[in-house]
């Protein structure tokens, strides 16, 4: 299941804003070792590098396509191909940063404490995850995949919502932390074009479903999904579509 960097960065302004909001809440002055998990095309990693120019920064991702784009655009940063679910660096970090990546992984009950164990004393884990799985954009996708026409080929790809609620993460992480900052934000994104929400999901949630089909069936499935999206998110008179998108933020700092 390959990532398409060009598709993903179509909405780079909207995708970058949560990363900036997360970065603004990191309570560190001069971390020396930083890891960006699920770095994608490296745009956020580059921001971390600009913010902490003296730090050793490593971007890690399991998409060779995304890393190729990252290396092309930001050759001075260290990039590593790897599975972030098995993240175990030789040198522990002062900051582990992850923007819109950990929701692709299950078993958060074990994942988050494991990530905290890869931090130095006083280190920070800063995470942003989409939390839009009950929204029409996602629910229509899951319902269509589980319809009689598609369930045999796509039904198994429908996952339970991977992101828990704020109370769940607080109860999990607060016993391990010196400080914990958790919040949720809904961004009311203004997108342009007839199939704006479809274009958004092509870069993320829709990908595994299309990858499981041949080209002809993928076009049929995408067309049916597009019709549902236009009903759920009608185009406004100015040719814009209002697409609310919720995201969960977690910033955890260990004791010194």
From TrEMBL:
It catalyses: trans-aconitate + S-adenosyl-L-methionine = (E)-3-(methoxycarbonyl)pent-2-enedioate + S-adenosyl-L-homocysteine. One of its GO terms (biological process) is methylation. Residues 34-123 form the Methyltransferase domain. Its EC number is 2.1.1.144. Gene3D superfamilies: S-adenosyl-L-methionine-dependent methyltransferases, Vaccinia Virus protein VP39. InterPro entries: Methyltransf_25, SAM-dependent_MTases_sf, Trans-aconitate_MeTrfase, Trans_acon_MeTrfase_C. The keyword Transferase applies. The keyword Transferase applies. It is found in: Cytoplasm. GO terms for molecular function: trans-aconitate 2-methyltransferase activity. Keywords: Cytoplasm, Methyltransferase, S-adenosyl-L-methionine, Transferase. GO terms for cellular component: cytoplasm. Pfam families: Methyltransf_25. Its main location: cytoplasm. Belongs to the methyltransferase superfamily. Tam family. Catalyzes the S-adenosylmethionine monomethyl esterification of trans-aconitate. This is Trans-aconitate 2-methyltransferase. It comes from Sneathiella chungangensis.
């Amino acid at each position: 299941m390959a990532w398409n960097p060009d598709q993903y960065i179509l909405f780079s302004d909207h995708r970058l804003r949560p990363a900036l909001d997360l970065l603004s809440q990191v309570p560190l002055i001069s971390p020396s070792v930083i890891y960006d998990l699920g770095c994608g095309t490296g745009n956020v990693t580059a921001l971390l590098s600009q913010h902490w120019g003296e730090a050793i920064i490593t971007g890690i991702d399991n998409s060779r396509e995304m890393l190729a784009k990252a290396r092309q655009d930001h050759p001075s940063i260290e990039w590593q191909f790897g599975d972030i679910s098995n993240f175990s660096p030789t040198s522990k970090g002062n900051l582990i940063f992850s923007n819109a990546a950990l929701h692709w992984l299950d078993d958060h009950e074990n994942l988050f404490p494991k990530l905290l164990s890869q931090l130095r004393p006083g280190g920070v884990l800063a995470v942003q995850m989409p939390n839009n799985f009950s929204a029409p954009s996602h629910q229509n996708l899951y319902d269509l995949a589980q319809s009689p026409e598609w369930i045999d080929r796509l039904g198994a790809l429908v996952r339970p919502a991977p992101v828990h609620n704020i109370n769940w993460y607080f109860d999990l992480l607060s016993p391990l932390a010196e400080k914990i900052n958790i919040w949720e934000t809904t961004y009311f994104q203004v997108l342009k074009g007839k199939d704006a929400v479809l274009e958004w999901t092509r870069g993320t949630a829709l990908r595994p479903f299309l990858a499981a089909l041949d080209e002809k069936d993928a076009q049929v499935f995408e067309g049916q999904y597009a019709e549902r999206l236009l009903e759920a998110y009608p185009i406004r008179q100015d040719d814009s579509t209002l697409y609310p998108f919720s995201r969960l933020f977690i910033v955890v700092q260990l004791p010194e």
